[in-house]
Design a protein that fits this description.
Length: about 300
């Protein structure tokens, strides 16, 4: 049972989603942001041309607030008026007319000719202007962006609470399995002793067995298979994992490193166990650790 909701918020998922709608006099801007797990911060922006000048500022906000993950941010603009307004290029039209009029007179073309109909299809008679980003509009959009990021972060915290319970449970299972090793470890020494004696007996060695020499060889053999250090180190890693889970800030990478060290000790424990019951416990530890590693991939 987790003691408090505060603990839940210690870790965050990298998965999240946020959406905000900004209502403006001539347009409606829908801001959507989502994140998935990633080793680094990977930001992908889909912005209208109107907001390109703010791209660096937007990237800095996301980096500061979200820190890590594959982030996709989209601005969808629904405008009453188009962003690009076409305007008549008066200077170009005048220049066309200045050149066409003497030619028309020379050729005897009536002065009543509709020159505009002739000129307007010609190149560069119309020009598109991109309106400058209004500061008031940007303030509204900026606040909408912050709201979207806050929604995504709240989603991450909620997912993190579930992940905390899951990962903590698997870590505790490894602790309990390690404790189960102890009684089998005590039995193992006697099993090894009997196995060596039986082997020597089957070899039909002539003469009496030198008990002192036998004990020396047995001690040497058991020392090679001793798992005391592995148990101590594994327990320390389990405790450190638990402590790290309750730290503030991003801990996903740190938990990944600790889980790797736990895996090394579990593998060594299994290779030195020389006992079927301990091997069974080691297999279960590995299964619990794999479940931890799967979750860590999505922890911020």
């Amino acid at each position: 049972m987790i003691e408090s909701q505060k603990i839940f918020s210690m870790i965050k998922s990298m998965t999240g989603y946020g959406k905000t709608v900004c209502e403006l006099p001539t347009k409606r801007i829908i801001i959507e942001i989502k994140s998935l797990n990633s080793k680094q911060l990977d930001i992908n922006l889909r912005l209208p041309t109107h907001y390109k000048e703010k791209e660096l500022e937007i990237r800095n906000i996301i980096a500061q607030k979200l820190q890590r993950g594959k982030i996709d941010l989209t601005f969808n603009v629904e405008s009453i008026m188009p962003d690009k307004i076409s305007r008549i290029n008066e200077e170009v039209i005048r220049e066309y007319f200045r050149q066409l009029k003497p030619i028309a007179e020379e050729l005897g073309i009536s002065s009543n000719t509709d020159f505009l109909r002739v000129i307007m299809p010609l190149p560069d008679t119309m020009k598109s202007e991109q309106p400058e980003l209004d500061e008031e509009e940007w303030n509204i959009v900026y606040n909408g962006l912050l709201q979207s990021i806050e929604q995504l972060d709240a989603f991450r915290i909620q997912e993190g609470a579930a992940m905390f319970r899951d990962v903590k449970g698997h870590n505790e299972s490894i602790r309990l399995l390690l404790e189960e090793v102890v009684p089998f470890e005590k039995q193992r020494t006697e099993k090894i002793k009997n196995r060596i004696k039986e082997t020597l007996k089957n070899l039909n060695i002539n003469g009496d067995l030198d008990e002192n020499r036998f004990e020396q060889e047995l001690i040497y053999y058991i020392e090679k298979l001793d798992i005391s250090e592995e148990k101590i180190r594994l327990k320390n890693h389990i405790d450190y994992f638990d402590k790290t889970l309750n730290e503030d800030g991003p801990v996903g990478k740190k938990l990944g490193f600790i889980s790797q060290e736990m895996g090394r000790e579990i593998n060594t424990l299994g290779s030195k166990a020389n006992d079927s019951e301990i091997q069974r416990l080691v297999v279960n530890m590995k299964d619990e650790l794999e479940k931890i590693k799967e979750q860590i991939l999505n922890i911020l």
